[in-house]
Amino acid sequence: QKEVEQDPGPLSVPEGAIVSLNCTYSNSAFQYFMWYRQYSRKGPELLMYTYSSGNKEDGRFTAQVDKSSKYISLFIRDSQPSDSATYLCAMSAKTGANNLFFGTGTRLTVIP
Amino acid sequence: ETGVTQSPTHLIKTRGQQVTLRCSSQSGHNTVSWYQQALGQGPQFIFQYYREEENGRGNFPPRFSGLQFPNYSSELNVNALELDDSALYLCASSLGGGVETQYFGPGTRLLVL
Questions:
Q1: For the CA atoms of A109, A63, A39, B91, what is the dihedral angle to 10 degrees?
Q2: Could you tell me which residues are beta bridge partners of residue A79?
Q3: pLDDT of B1
C-alpha cells in the first residue's frame, strides 16, 4: 500500500465550477499537509500548507484535513481555465522538506 | 518564475552510463533537495543538502549521489543508469530546509535507452 493515495483523474469541469480534490494516507504520523500545483513542463508550486486537522482558506482555495479519517481535500471555488494543471498532495511527519511524501497527482482541466 | 534553474533541460543516455544534473538555487537559499518524478507519478524524495552536507535521504540506492557547493548550487549524479531511471528530476531550494520556503526548478527530463 502506498503511503499516499490520490485519484489521478483526469478531471474536467466547466469554468466557474467548484472542484474537489482528495487524498488519503496510511501513516498516522503525518502532521503537515500540502497541496502543490504543477503546470506542464514546470516544477510544482506550493499552494497550501496546513498543520494537523482543520481548514485553511486562501482566496478561492480551501484545504481541509481530517486526521481521524486520514483524508485531505482541496476545494477550488469559481474555477478558471488558468487552474488547469496537475494538483499534487504531499505530507510529512516533520516540518522539513526532507521528509515529503507526494500523491500521484490529479490532472484538472477547466473548460471555458 | 522561481529563481531555481536546472541544466540540462533534456538528456538522453544509454543503460550503464553515468549522468550529472545541475541545479542553481534561488538567491539566499542554503538548502537543495532533489526529487525523481516518473511519468504519471508524484515526486519522490532522493536527498537533501544543507550547507554542503547531506541532510536526509529517501529510498534510493547509493548509485544516486550528490554534491552541494559553497555557493549552494548542487549536482545529482547517477551511475550505472537503468531504464527505470527515466524520469523528470526536480531540484528545489529552500532556506533551512523548510517546506514553506521551498521553490522547485523546472526539472531535467532524463531518458535512458
A1: -160
A2: none
A3: 66
Residues 6+ apart with CB under 8 A from B31: A97, B25, B48, B49, B50, B51, B55, B72, B93, B94, B95, B96, B97
Q: pLDDT tens, B25-78?
A: 998 899 999 999 999 899 999 999 999 999 999 999 999 999 999 999 999 999
Task: Please give the full DSSP string across chain A, using - where no structure is assigned.
Answer: --SEEE----EEEETT--EEEEEEE--TT--EEEEEEE-TTS--EEEEEEESSEEEEETTEEEEEETTTTEEEEEESS--GGG-EEEEEEEESSSBGGG-EE---EEEEEE-
Interchain proximity B97–A97, CB inside 8 Å: yes
Q: What is the DSSP string of B40-54?
A: TS--EEEEEEETTEE
* Rounded Cα–Cα distance for residues A3 and A23 (Å): 10
Closest CA to A72 of A18, A31, A11: A31
SS3 B106: coil
Instruction: Examine the pLDDT at A35 and tell me if it is beyond 80.
Output: yes
Give the minimum alpha-carbon distance from B99 to chain A in angstroms, rounded to a whole number.
5
Q: CB of B102 within 8 A of CB of B93?
A: yes
Residues in chain A closer than 8 A to B4 (CB atoms): 43
Distance (Å) of CA B101 to CA A80, A82, B37, B77, B96: 26, 24, 20, 25, 8
For cell 527515466, the residue is B86
